[in-house]
Each structure stands twice: as structure tokens, then as C-alpha cells.
Design brief:
Layout: E1 2-6, E2 9-12, E3 17-24, E4 30-38, E5 45-51, E6 58-59, E7 67-72, E8 77-82, E9 91-99, E10 105-108, E11 112-117
Parallel strand pairs: 2-11
Antiparallel strand pairs: 1-3, 3-8, 4-5, 4-9, 5-6, 7-8, 9-10, 9-11
Length: 118
């Protein structure tokens, strides 16, 4: 499985961005996908996750009501719509896929920078 993010950039506080994660390879083996953020000097943290089956998406408290995760299976692409952006949302955002079942492992994209100016 290969993941390639796009859509990051510089935006003013209150603005919006949409991140995309293009997925290729053995997509049938993916169980869940998500977006993580890593700010300078901090650990990588889960922002939102969506499973391949039923169930509601998960959102970190810090982004609830502002971010929306979605998938377009026909395009093999996952999105993160980010609205009402805040300076504290500034981070590198990584696309993640949980691959496999018995011996599941994480697959990561290269990351895309999101910078929110005040």
C-alpha cells in the first residue's frame, strides 16, 4: 500500500483547506485509514479515523465540528476537510492506513505541511 498526501499550504486563521490522500497498491487489505498531525517538538497524534466497514468516524476533541474525514472508494482517495482553522492546527499532516488483520501494520504517507497564520 502506498499513500501520497496533497493539499497542504498556508492559510489564515478561520480559513479552510482540504487534504487528499491517494491510495494505491493492495487497497483491499486496508482495515482503517486516518489522519495524524505532528507539530514541531510534539508526538504524532491521531486527528481523525475512518474504517472500511460500518461505524462512525472518530475525531479528536480538538477538531470535532471543524474537520471532516471522508473516502471516495471509486477514486481510492481519502480526504480531510478542515474548516475554521486555528494557529494551533499548524502541523505536518500524515495519512495513515492500517493494513492486514492477523499481523496488521501501519502504512504512512510522506506528510503535508499545514500552516495557519493568526
Amino acid at each position: 500500500v502506498q499513500l501520497v498526501e496533497s493539499g497542504g499550504g498556508l492559510v489564515q486563521a478561520g480559513g479552510s483547506l482540504r487534504l487528499s490522500c491517494a491510495v494505491s497498491g493492495s487497497t483491499f487489505s486496508i482495515n482503517a485509514m486516518g489522519w495524524y498531525q505532528q507539530a514541531p517538538g510534539k508526538q504524532r497524534e491521531l486527528v481523525a479515523r475512518i474504517s472500511t466497514g460500518r461505524g462512525s468516524p472518530y475525531y479528536a476533541d480538538s477538531v470535532k465540528g471543524r474537520f471532516t474525514i471522508s473516502r471516495d472508494n471509486a477514486k481510492n482517495t481519502m480526504y480531510l476537510q478542515m474548516n475554521s482553522l486555528k494557529p494551533e492546527d499548524t502541523a505536518v499532516y500524515y495519512c495513515n492506513a492500517v493494513v492486514g488483520v492477523a499481523a496488521a501494520y501501519d502504512c504512512w504517507g510522506q506528510g503535508t505541511q499545514v500552516t495557519v497564520s493568526s
